[in-house]
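Sample intake sheet
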Amino acid sequence: MSSPKPHTPAPLRPLPSMIFASRWLQLPLYLGLILAQAVYVFHFWVELVHLIEAAFGNTTALQSLVSSIGYKSDYQVTALNETIIMLVVLALIDVVMISNLLIMVIVGGYETFVSRLHLEDHPDQPEWLSHVNASVLKVKLATAIIGISSIHLLKTFINAANYDLKVLMWQTIIHTVFLLSALAIALTDRLMSHPAADKH
């Protein structure tokens, strides 16, 4: 008994085929984000090298760190202190979290909107990619943005003496808006995936 022939999809007409192929216009955007991530990696290592050099007493590296984090003091900074180290480490964590956000956008966006990556049998396939869709991607991006905003807010509060009260207030308000927006997105996704019609 012969096995049934696999179903071959009918070829698209020229106009639908061109419209569907237009999704590949997004490819340069994702390649550009990969380059942006490379810039973040370079920036991360520059800051890390400066931190290590400052720990060994390099005053030039120390002044570079103080300038990059916007730290100000009533006296001349001649050595690392706990506040400077904490601000630099938070800045490094911030870079890592933004890099994670970029990975989610690049991998998840390409998989969702451009083409399948066929990573089902790959041992390093991200767990979240197995059930990613546009809705899940929005929730994960919103969560990542809240994490990044939290790091920025913590950096501001640690260095609060160098910020105006209005800056502190608006950063707190903006972070709260991010949090409420993420909750609204998650709630909307939950309502759409579990409509009231399905309830008994």
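Comment: The chain has six helices and no strands. The mean pLDDT is 82.
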